[in-house]
Amino acid sequence: MGKLEHYSIGKRNLKIPEIHWETLDSETFRVTKPTVLVFGGNASLRPKDANYMCRVGQSLIGLKDPQHANEIGTTRDVDFVGIGYGNNETTGYGKNQKMSDTSELTEEEIAELANNIFTPFYLDDHMQIRPETDILRNFSQVTFFAHCHGAREVTALIQKVRENMQSIGINSTTVNAAIGQLYAVTYAPRRMIPCPGLQVIPEKDNTIKTGPSHAPIAQEFLERRSISRYQLQGEGTVAFKENADVISLVVSSMSQATDEHSINFIERDDDWQMIEPDLVYGKEVSTAMGVALAYAIAGSIRNMQEFTPRPNADTMLGHIQSILGTSQNQTFIQGIEQIKEI
User: Could you count the other beta carbons within 10 Å of the beta carbon of residue 92?
Assistant: First the structure.
């Protein structure tokens, strides 16, 4: 019962009957094509948990197996690779001992992922630093999709990659540019991931009530919503730049539920219809996340041939605001502008 279990890694594979899951070797896994790395909450212990997170990510963009020989943007072009954190802790003693129902990656596991996935991006087979354009193109092959605690794991991974690149003498300009070619789409994140991306913050989140750490504008907005003198009452959505790279999308209510922390509020079925019933603004938010993922993946596919930098945050913000449409609350927008002026 007390034996520590190493983390697991696998990818969504619709050709495998029933489970649609292919186990990968954590020590030999390499990114060879556009890949979405998927990190769930701290209860994502087993392969089936990672599989579910990958399924949700695929549902956002309607990813399916190819139906025609020349079809692009299918499972043939992009992998969804998920991480199960394993059981690294036990609770209780003696006969009452049991494995913890939550976990996280160890420092050694983060180091292994950083080395296996990212080192080939910036070092060639002779352990020589690649040309900068090749490094940027390689980094652009990775998109992150994360929920809750998963944002912390992605942050730790990025920080380790940055540390590794700097330790072998890659200049900070190239390191920053490489990290800038990653993209992260997160739902109810515990912290803001330090690379370009979209973070969706449901206000009815009973687990993370104050918003993600390291996201001061979103946190200030949520705090003001609870204080009557700021007059930020009402319902709806608001999307804004948290910084030069990250877009925050705060939604007051996605459904009739009282707690919207779960990732299932954005999931879609095989016909790209929302699974969650009684929606308020859930459809708009799910669509925005799907579009952000789709643009990131499309950029990865394009860069298989020739490097083109990712669109800046202003461009992506425009797409997201267009999708949110009339769900955007003008009072919320004004409140965000006031916070930015401080």
Answer: 11
